[in-house]
Design goal:
The chain has 340 residues and is of the alpha/beta class. Helix content is 35%, strand content 18%.
């Protein structure tokens, strides 16, 4: 019996948000509004519509139904990235994070064999985030946290986040990195949806590179970090970074290749040849299924996507479940050896 297929990239939005109780004059506090569309609700931020979301965001039965249709055995739940709220005062963000984490814990409790969660912490205060992570890791529902590629415009490789990464390594917490308020949005021409399509890949590449150039992976080699959207443009950036590594006088550290191959990546690239390139760049042991369920941009056939590429049964098993289990800390790290 093969292990159930794991999707490491799915998002939740709570059915409701608590009323804002903080002190900030401009809280950017999310609110839910009714929506004319059946089973949908409007997420409002600063009084403006941010996104219309369906009941699959909070309704476990709806998610299970979708999983049956798409051949997914387990989903890793994480917050809709905009809810990470790094631009709020840290104490306000903590209140919101706890509400979202509570929502996810309740969802996992309804079907613990089908769901596991990555929570959220107020990374604008790295010490507070480390303490909150510690609290989360004591709750059975959580394997770690989702974080943004930048925290209110500061990239994750910045040394100020050291207390958080040290805590995550110590606690054995998995970290899922997702683009947020991407760089380069002023360079987009066309409709608003281009942020996800065109700006996210560059944002992901910058964040992944920062973990290497900022020394985070060097200092914390046991961290388990996965990048969404196949880390965007990072697979094409990596050979350039490696080519100039000696000139950067960072040569005493593990090579960028080696460090990049210690990260995990989801398969959410919508294209067989691109997926093959990720596998050859990062290794068959580092890719996990990711769909972006339940948002409009999701890959509705993440498992069938593997049929477009030529992989043997062992590799297919790794991509469907083995790598995800290692990312989540549910199987021993030496259960598989890299082929490089």
């Amino acid at each position: 019996m093969s292990a159930p297929t794991v999707d490491i990239h799915t998002h939740i939005v709570p059915h409701d948000f608590p009323a804002y109780a903080g002190t900030s004059p401009v809280p950017s506090w999310p609110q839910m509004a009714e929506c004319a569309q059946c089973n949908h609700r409007n997420v409002m931020i600063d009084g403006k519509l941010f996104r219309t979301v369906s009941h699959e965001c909070w309704d476990v039965q709806q998610r299970l139904h979708h999983m049956e249709k798409t051949g997914i055995g387990r989903q890793v739940l994480s917050p809709m990235p905009e809810l990470l709220s790094y631009w709020m005062p840290a104490q306000d963000a903590l209140v919101l994070c706890r509400h979202i984490n509570e929502t996810m814990a309740e969802m996992v409790a309804q079907a613990p064999e089908r769901f596991v969660a990555l929570g959220c912490v107020p990374l604008q205060d790295p010490d507070l985030a480390a303490r909150e992570l510690e609290r989360l890791m004591k709750m059975g529902a959580f394997r770690g946290v989702e974080i943004g590629t930048n925290i209110d415009d500061v990239v994750i490789g910045d040394p100020r986040f050291e207390p958080f990464f040290a805590a995550a390594e110590e606690l054995g917490a998995s970290i899922f990195v997702h683009p947020l308020r991407a760089v380069g949005m002023n360079r987009l021409i066309g409709p608003p949806g281009l942020i996800q399509l065109v700006a996210f890949p560059g944002e992901n590449a910058l964040a992944a590179a920062s973990l290497i150039t900022g020394g985070v992976l060097e200092r914390h080699p046991r961290l388990r970090i996965a990048f969404s959207h196949g880390a965007g443009g990072f697979a094409l950036t990596l050979p350039r970074l490696a080519a100039g590594w000696e000139q950067l006088a960072l040569g005493h550290r593990r090579s960028p290749w080696e460090q990049a191959r210690s990260l995990f990546y989801d398969t959410l690239v919508y294209d067989g040849p691109t997926l093959e390139h990720l596998i050859s760049t990062f290794g068959a042991t580092q890719l996990c299924i990711g769909s972006d369920h339940p948002f409009v941009i999701q890959d509705t056939r993440p498992v069938q996507r593997l049929d477009q590429i030529d992989v043997d049964d062992d590799t297919r098993h790794l991509l469907l479940s083995g790598n995800a289990m290692r990312f989540l800390g549910e199987s021993p790290p030496d259960a598989v050896h890299s082929h490089h």
